Amino acid sequence: MADLILWRPLQDLKKEMDRIWQEFFGKELSIERWEGISWVPAVDVSETEDKVIVKVDIPGVKPEDMEISLMDNVLVIKGEKKKEEEEKKENFYRIERFYGSFMRSIPLPCEIEEEKIEASYKDGVLKITLPKKPEEKKKVIKINVEK
């Protein structure tokens, strides 16, 4: 039976980029924003006529362990998934779940009405609804066709 290997594409990509950078410049690159970040949750961003909707998969994270902020039209979601501590000793054969700090910075496609932002958390999915400013809503212009 073949051994299974955990694939972490973002961490693998960072390691590969660090290796390339080191080869090119001959020294190791230290990116401060990655320090202390253990994992990156998956995000879906969608847009309707009057709002932007962001959904983040963060199962096992308590709402009090999350922080959501908006600055310069960039939505920042930070948090921490704490490891469950048990009294009994366990021998793990496989560990695939992520624990530790995470952060996502999401540039938004338009200006947002900050005072009307709503967030909800259900079944491990954080949903943030960001209403667009009225002037950002798409205007439909009717085209007259001459005969």
Can you put this structure into words, describing what you see?
The protein is mainly β and 147 residues long. The protein has one helix at residues 9-25, and strands at 43-47, 51-57, 66-71, 74-81, 100-107, 118-122, 125-131. A hairpin with a 2-residue loop joins strand 6 and strand 7. The longest helix is centred in the first third of the chain and has 17 residues, at 9-25. Mean pLDDT is 79; it is low at 27-34.
Considering the chains and any ligands shown, give keywords for the structure.
about 150 residues; mainly beta; four-stranded antiparallel β-sheet; three-stranded antiparallel β-sheet; about 30% strand; extended
List the helices and strands and how they pair.
Elements: H1 9-25, E1 43-47, E2 51-57, E3 66-71, E4 74-81, E5 100-107, E6 118-122, E7 125-131
Antiparallel strand pairs: 1-2, 2-7, 3-4, 4-5, 6-7
**At the first level of CATH, what is the class of the largest domain?**
Mainly Beta
Largest sheet: 4 strands, antiparallel
SS strand fraction: 25-35%
- Segments where pLDDT lies below 50 for 5+ residues? 27-34
How many discrete structural domains?
2
List SSEs in N-to-C order. HEEEEEEE
Topology-level CATH name of the largest domain: Immunoglobulin-like
The N- and C-terminal alpha carbons lie at a distance of 73 Å
- The number of helical elements comes to 1
Radius of gyration: 21 Å
Q: How many strands appear in the DSSP assignment?
A: 7
**Structure class:** mainly beta
Short overview:
The chain has 147 residues and is mainly β. It is 12% helix and 31% strand. The protein has two domains: 8-37; 38-84 and 94-135, Sandwich (Immunoglobulin-like), CATH 2.60.40.
